[in-house]
Design goal:
This protein is of the alpha/beta class. Helix content is about 50%, strand content about 15%. Strands 3-2-1-4-5-6-7 form a 7-stranded parallel beta sheet, with helices on both faces. Helix 1 packs across helix 10. It is globular, with a radius of gyration of 18 Å.
Length: about 260
């Protein structure tokens, strides 16, 4: 087989860029997709790898665009598509008492959940022809615990976790494993949209707060997530299937 191809959605964001870089480093050709052409151009300049990194404008909420992107990817990189990372997502902060919450909720669920459905439906067909594939969905611990002020985000990620488990059952017989990663609190631009910046500014000692919440004593980074994505992408065993892996530094462990 020629060089294997990995598709990364939302590739121009913090997680997406780190995941794309890590997959390139271990030898994949990467189809980096995002709905922002300018951000994709900056990503290409940042990552390099002109022969093995190709960028594609794609809105995951538009099924027709996803179909067209799949055609473009196979035309430019070949048919050997074996990895899909459903990473595209938005966070959205909204409370149920707000008048704008319904419209915001629709948007969040459309991107985070419907987008993953669109991409999985299209790209899993290409993997089925090869009888091999790895689909990795970027969920969140919010999908396990819930999130005050982020009900739509939590619901979309909980849905993605359950979709991952369902797809794992459907696609497992075709040697396509499906897993989900549930990151904890990670330092990204997206986090700043959700966190109360005034409260952070008033915090006396952020380090002390972090250590009280996370046993390893720090927030996560995009590179932490990329490391596990790369492990799942390169794992030769299809027995690692339907797993949901929290990457939260141990946050879920209670503290006396």
């Amino acid at each position: 087989m020629s060089r294997q191809i990995a598709v990364v959605t939302g590739a121009a964001g913090g997680f997406g860029a780190a995941i794309s870089k890590s997959l390139l480093e271990v030898g994949y050709a990467v189809a980096a997709t995002d709905r922002d052409p300018a951000a994709l151009e900056r990503l290409g300049q940042y990552l390099g790898y002109p022969e093995h990194l190709k960028t594609f404008v794609m809105d995951v909420t538009d099924a027709d665009q996803v179909e067209q992107a799949a055609l473009d990817i196979t035309e430019r990189l070949g048919p050997n598509l074996t990895v899909l990372v459903n990473n595209a997502g938005i966070i959205g902060r909204g409370f149920c008492l707000s008048e704008k919450s319904v419209a915001l909720s629709r948007q969040v669920i459309d991107v985070n959940l419907t987008g993953a459905f669109n991409c999985t439906a299209v790209f899993s067909r290409l993997m089925a022809r090869l009888k091999y594939g790895r689909i990795i969905n970027i969920a969140s611990v919010a999908g396990i615990w819930g999130s005050a002020g982020g009900a739509a985000y939590a619901a979309s990620k909980a849905g993605l976790i359950k979709a991952s488990e369902s797809w794992a059952r459907e696609l497992g017989p075709l040697n396509i494993s499906v897993t989900a990663i549930a990151p904890g609190i990670c330092k990204t631009n997206m986090l700043t949209q959700f966190v109360d910046q005034e409260a952070v500014a008033m915090s006396v000692d952020e380090t002390k707060i972090v250590k009280s919440i996370v046993p390893v004593g720090r927030w996560g980074t995009p590179e932490d997530i990329a490391e596990v994505v790369t492990f799942l992408a390169t794992c030769k065993s299809n027995y690692l299937n339907a797993a949901v892996i929290p990457i939260d530094g141990g946050m879920r462990v209670g503290t006396l």
